[in-house]
Design a protein that fits this description.
about 150 residues; alpha+beta; Arc Repressor Mutant, subunit A; Dna Ligase, domain 1; 2 domains; 3-stranded antiparallel sheet; 6 helices; 6 strands; about 15% strand; DNA-binding
Amino acid sequence: MNSCHEAYKLKLKESGYKLTPQRLAIIHAIEENKGRHLNTEEIYDIVKQRNPEMGLATVYRTLQMLEELEVVTSLNLEDGCVRYELYCDDGSHHHHHLICSNCSAVIEVEGDLLDQLEAKIEKEYDFKIVDHKLKFYGLCSKCKNLV
């Protein structure tokens, strides 16, 4: 089990929760589909294949709890669905997203491009930045050639 799994277990334990098979199945579904930005129903469909007894309400409640504990983070792409990805506090910044306005593809931009801007804002405004989320909207490589 990797260090993020151990961090998930620890967060749950410290908050008085157990790492149940249902919670673990949901974490695995998101982890196995890294980069796909699954919504609740997609996570449910994946988990249901291995755990047919699990209900959609359990997935919703578990995702809400996991988000509160910072095991997962939600991503709202303004398309009517909330999507999820695992949060791993490894000291790196969150990645950013490119969202195609035509086909809704989501592309992750690895690396933080805002370090200098953050430092400037913190200095000029005497403001400590603890997090940020950045989304760019446009056309992916496939769609831009269709226009």
